[in-house]
């Protein structure tokens, strides 16, 4: 993402307003007689918790504008934290209510109202399952795709039961326009899920792609070359990414994000370089030329400045080189003259993806590349170890107020040490772009 304090504040303000909207709606117009403070407090928590849960669908709805302004990684980090807040707020609602007045326990009593007791208990169970399956997905060995599907369905179930509960209790939702508003807001969450799961695959199906080549690269990685079938292809900016579905159905739950690694001058011939990391990526080498693929995108703001005189510094680790390759290849094809620096970390020399191509690109472009190896071969005179502050200070160009852009993409620890150091060196937030490949 591109860091910008102004944009962040704008989004946070808008978000807080929407999250608090149920309280504003509740207190609009004639009010019912007030109840005990803790009852009112717990109702407020329930309202806001449900609103936050509904907003979660917007954050993951893959809206190009939202994703562009916030960046996929920060948006998903935020989604995660907001999910926890929603969980505690919604859970606190019945707990505080029961402590304030035991009579409210009747809501969970099957003898008083069986469907109501079942629905509310199931919603509380779903909420618990939502959190447990998210926080402990890996120890539970839940495949990412199944988890994602379950996650959306559980959240939708909680939101729907919440809506029925609010309407049934009927407090703070008269006159009728308030009820209509609640139905509309909940319907929007459902519409967003339908959009992601049905409308977008339908659109992808209209523009299929064919794998024309599968190329083995260094470091257990493969490049898939994709060509459009019956359409002109996809215009994109170098550094952007797509969601890839391989196979006959665009509705597959196996949908993964990959950076476009090829030159943006060729919308009709895309390349994705995929490193074997888990169950899906480990099978890339088995993909046969001729296989069907579907793409959704392009997304992302990890893109170079259109001004060709603005220098760029790339600080990357391992497969994080892919979006940078797209930029370098595009600069080569466009004869872009801007000065470029690449600091590129890898475990060893054999696993340096695109090593040979970078050697050719160095003299072709205004590019200076620095390789950093954790286990260098004998006789290696270059940098060794990991990318850290001292290494950066040795190789980063003297900005001298010219205002270069900095692109950081690599393993989590690298990103967490590089970005603060750039800030310490006085690089403004607006000039730092970062992309995280690990999103959950
Ligand atoms: C913006 C972006 C660009 C990326 N570009 C590249 C690239 O160019 N080359 C490359 O090799 N990798 C890239 N990745 C990482 C790639 O998406 C994951 O390595 C891949 O999805 C792992 O899937 P798996 O089933 O093989 O591994 P798993 O072991 O199942 O997953 C490993 C991790 O990958 C992530 N992941 C898994 N499945 C998905 C999914 N369906 N959607 C989103 N994330 C998932 C999760 O964080 C998970 O913990 C990118 C990721 C992002 C977010």
How many structural domains? 3
**β-strand number:** 12
Helix-strand sequence: HHHHHHHEEEEEEEHEHEEHEHE
Major sheet strand order? 4-3-6-1-2-5
Structural classification: alpha/beta
Shape: elongated
What does this structure look like?
The chain is an alpha/beta fold and 440 residues long. It has three domains: 5-202; 207-299, Translation factors (Elongation Factor Tu (Ef-tu), domain 3), CATH 2.40.30.10; 312-435, Nucleotide-binding domain of ferredoxin-NADP reductase (FNR) module (Rossmann fold, 3-Layer(aba) Sandwich), CATH 3.40.50.80. Helices cover 46% and strands 17% of the residues. It has helices at 5-26, 37-59, 64-70, 72-100, 114-135, 144-169, 176-206, 321-333, 355-364, 389-395, 412-424; strands at 209-217, 221-228, 241-246, 256-259, 270-275, 292-299, 312-317, 339-346, 366-373, 383-384, 405-409, 432-435. The strands form two sheets. It has a six-stranded antiparallel β-sheet. The chain has a six-stranded parallel β-sheet with strand order 10-9-8-7-11-12, with helices on both faces. Strand 7, helix 8 and strand 8 (339-346) form a beta-alpha-beta unit. Helix 2 packs antiparallel against helix 4, helix 2 (37-59) packs antiparallel against helix 6 (144-169) and helix 2 runs parallel beside helix 7 (176-206). The longest helix is centred in the middle third of the chain and has 31 residues, at 176-206. The protein is elongated. 32% of the residues are buried. The model has no long low-confidence stretch (mean pLDDT 90). Bound molecules: flavin-adenine dinucleotide. Flavin-adenine dinucleotide binds next to helix 6, strand 4 and strand 5.
